[in-house]
Design goal:
heterodimer, A: 118 residues, little secondary structure, two-stranded antiparallel sheet, B: 235 residues, alpha+beta, RNA Cap, Translation Initiation Factor Eif4e, two-stranded antiparallel ribbon, protein biosynthesis (chain B), TIF_eIF4e-like (chain B), RNA-binding (chain B)
């Protein structure tokens, strides 16, 4: 990676000072780093703590047993988070729209999570 | 209005149950199993940097703020990664949403209440409402689910923050299902600093194969927030 004239230097945003280090043993962690219950590591950032997760870690959590059912007290909205017809007020005189279903097959990994009863 | 009661639900609020265990008390009691459940989910989840709230609304052209508010539903507030997925995995994929519906995921520390005027979801009781704005990106419907998922992950993982100006911040992300191209939005807290941000570059990096058909930024002006002008909402 060249250090001079890289596109990064053209960008206007100010970089947050950070560095990436590879640890071979948990004992190498500085004392002010923390582990989260799921095992990931987050660190403090200048000016305060910010918890950062990368995409792959977040995706790993997706299939946790905790995520298979909705939160027990999630709002139950008929047609959206509960069976039934959407009960949000409709416009007068305008026929009900049909859901667009054509888009999913382009993304086989995006299996529908929920079947709506329309 | 039953939904206003629903709207109070969050990770920390349990369902009030019949106070079978302790009938002497008048206030709503949580059953022990409920408390344990809440406790265990808080214990076992990995904390997010801030809590975030999922909202759903339906925008109808020409409606007033009050009418809009009747369509705005709070789905749930999440504060852990697992909490996020337990909502995401169990609400309809954006490809299943009807036209004119919008999902929002708004950062909780910034949002007290949402209202809309001319397609703008703004925050009141906070200076944020006059100073923020959003980037709007139009994409083809077949790209929307991937774009939305990547945006959500980048937002809750705080991957976008470093692309914002120092005093700016991500306020939330939204996806709106429209008749033709869908619209995703990235909300920031300081419209005056948006030119210093290169968050759009980051989004292109997140979804390199997606062709956005339009990208623009819109600040929320105070006038628009007040909604004093008589011109019809243009959508």
């Amino acid at each position: 990676m060249s250090m001079q004239g890289s596109p990064q230097q053209q960008l206007k945003g100010r970089e947050i000072p950070s560095r990436r280090i590879v640890l071979n043993d948990i004992a190498q962690l500085p004392h002010d780093y923390s582990t989260t219950p799921g095992g990931s590591i987050f660190s403090t950032t200048p000016g305060g703590t910010r918890i950062i997760y990368d995409r792959s870690y977040l995706l790993q959590c997706r299939n946790s047993p905790l995520t298979r059912s909705p939160p027990p007290n999630m709002a139950k909205i008929p047609g959206v988070t509960a069976p039934g017809v959407v009960d949000i007020p409709k416009e007068n005189g305008i026929p009900k729209e049909n859901p667009k279903e054509s888009s999913e097959r382009h993304h086989p990994e995006e299996q529908p999570q929920f079947e709506m009863d329309i | 209005m039953p939904w206003s009661i629903m709207a109070a639900s969050s990770v920390r609020s349990g369902e009030p149950l019949n106070s079978v265990d302790s009938p002497k008390f008048g206030s709503p009691q949580l059953q022990r199993s409920t408390i344990n459940e809440i406790h265990s989910s808080e214990q076992s989840g990995v904390p997010l940097n801030t809590s975030w709230t999922f909202w759903l609304d339906k925008s109808v052209p020409g409606t007033s703020v009050a009418e809009y508010e009747t369509t705005l539903r709070k789905l749930y507030t999440v504060s852990t990664v697992q909490g996020f997925w337990s909502v995401y995995n169990n609400i309809p994929d954006v490809s299943k949403l009807n036209v004119r519906y919008t999902y929002h995921l708004m950062r909780n520390e910034l949002i007290q209440h949402c209202r809309q005027h001319r397609n703008m979801m703004v925050v009141r009781e906070d200076e944020f409402n006059c100073r923020g704005g959003n980037w709007r990106l139009k994409c083809h419907k077949f790209d929307t689910p991937v774009v939305w998922k990547e945006l959500l992950l980048a937002a809750i993982g705080e991957q976008l923050t470093e692309y914002m100006a120092e005093d700016d911040n991500i306020g939330g992300v939204s996806v709106s299902v429209r008749e033709r191209d869908d619209i995703v939005q990235i909300w920031n807290t300081r419209s005056d600093l948006h030119e210093e941000s290169n968050v759009i570059d980051k989004i292109r990096e997140l979804v390199p194969d997606v062709n956005f058909t339009a990208i623009f930024y819109k600040g929320i002006t105070h006038q628009a927030f007040e909604g004093k002008s008589g011109s019809p909402a243009k959508r």
